[in-house]
Amino acid sequence: MSQILIIDNGACSLKAGYSTDQAPLVVPNAVIKAKNERKRVFIGPEIDECKDRTSLFYLTPFQRGYLVNWDTEHQIWDRIFAADKLNVAFGDCKLVLTDPNYCVPAIRDISDEIIFEDYCFQAVLKTSSALCAGYPNLQTNKFTNDFCNLVVDTGYSFTHVVPVANGSVIQSGVKRINVGGKQLTNQLKEWVSYRQMNMLEETYLINECKEKCCFVASDFDAEMRKMSSNATKKAIVREYVLPDYVTTDVGVMQTPSACGGVVNPDLASLQRILMGTERFCIPELLFRPSDVGIQGMGIAEAIALSIDSIPEALRGRMLKNIVVVGGNALFPGFRERLQASQGFLHSATDFREQELRSLVESKYETAIRLSSNPVTHVWHSAAAMIAANGENNDFVTREEYHEHGPDLCRKRFYKFSPN
């Protein structure tokens, strides 16, 4: 029996594993060069062998969420397919690949050619992250043949709000926000470099700082008021101790001594970044990108506008099945911010938008489901979908590809509903 390999090919991390595995292999989807190891390049999972991660340089196959550099992606796939990782037997292996269904026509998609002609996989099934993400809802949904999900995919390069009904993406309701984890990390680099020390080349360290220190404020204005008082800001201010790769290899968040914290004497000599308003102002860009001059809507506004763009008969069911995936959902307080009534009302810019949010809150019940691991949720959902459908999964075989060409893949896999 053929093995089925599932790859969730994200812009930041690549999640890969066989459908029978308990969890996927999660590796950086990048080729990385370290300043202190000039003679070596780290490809994907090899970053675990890097002893000093200061001033890392990343070469990624994705730009703005689109796969544009297949030469780099090929190197990373080669590494994870190797005998010491997934040990893929291509001729006896089927591939399930999450593929962005929002790819612009100007970007040439050569994935079919690489899958069948370079690697010679037995068969392939392409599906979007949004279609996979909502799949577990089918297990408890009364209308198993008429399911609806509103998927909020907040990842590395962007945030998508995608309505899914009957196994198809409703194209008119797809909304994209050009703010993701990369934008947040870059913004934090700029603020820290301007206010404290130059960290513009320390993408890895600042990203670690962001993930360990930041949180989503349930009430942004209230948090800002706390920071204006010495008595209340102690509950928020933290310092992030940078690793020196001698004393420690891992950055640590701790309460400063000035705020009543006990400083670890082993870390007393290490450099540190003071995190005050940055802790909640950085994730706030997902909800109010205009705060730093980024034109566009926030997540709450995108949800409301997406709902307004789909048939009214589907709106109630969509709002009762909001599924949140992606690395930014790991910020503490993210789900609570969306669930709160102010979440859909906060970013209104004119009367019509305010009225729309009031409609969402007053007329429809909302329910938000956040996976225990938003990063690997899509991979686990794809595995569940494959297991449930058995032999009914709609793969394109290598023989069919050679007979009909890439057009067959486009017809079979790209499932859109105009409205």
Automatic annotation (TrEMBL):
One of its GO terms (cellular component) is nucleus. It holds the Pfam family Actin. It is found in: Cytoplasm. Keywords: Cytoplasm. InterPro entries: Actin, ATPase_NBD. The keyword Cytoplasm applies. Belongs to the actin family. ARP6 subfamily. This is Actin-related protein 6. The lineage of its organism: Eukaryota, Metazoa, Ecdysozoa, Nematoda, Chromadorea.
